[in-house]
Design a protein that fits this description.
Layout (H helix, E strand, L loop, with lengths): L3 H14 L4 E5 L2 H12 L3 E7 L6 E6 L1 E2 L2 E2 L4 E3 L8 E2 L13 E6 L2 E4 H6 L4 E7 L1
Antiparallel strand pairs: 1-3, 2-3, 4-5, 6-10, 7-10, 8-9, 8-10
């Protein structure tokens, strides 16, 4: 596995395609922060940390609306082979405000709306709608 964020997004996408209630991921602080943003924005229901030391897992409870996933699209923007950095002025709304972009700024991970509000730029990790 080269890119942990792409792996996380693919696991969520695949679990929602077959209507699984939860998805299990290897734990990392970056994935945990991304999951916290998704939970805060209402895309997933709950996050749990399980296990100890090298066997830590992240268990995400997915959210559905009448058997349709709340997350309709996931897209990785900045990849290991091509990093994409944006200034505050370059950050655009995702799907006319119906989606979010997760941005890694000097002040930590945040959504595109928060980054524009705090006038911070950074690496745009992914878009979710």
């Amino acid at each position: 596995m080269v890119d942990p964020i792409t792996d996380m997004l693919n696991r969520i996408r695949n679990a929602q395609a077959v209507l699984h209630p939860t998805v299990s991921l290897p734990f990392s602080n970056l994935k945990y922060e991304v999951a916290k943003i998704l939970a805060k924005q209402g895309f997933i229901e709950k996050i749990e940390k399980r296990g100890r030391k090298t066997r830590k897992l992240l268990l995400l409870t997915l959210k559905y609306d009448d058997k349709a996933p709340v997350i309709t699209g996931l897209k990785r923007i900045s990849k290991p082979g091509r990093r994409l950095y944006l200034s505050t002025k370059q950050i655009k709304a995702v799907r006319e405000g119906y989606g979010i972009a997760i941005i890694s700024t000097p002040k930590g991970l945040m959504t595109d709306k928060e980054a524009r509000k705090k006038k911070l730029g950074g690496e745009i990790l992914c878009e979710i709608w």
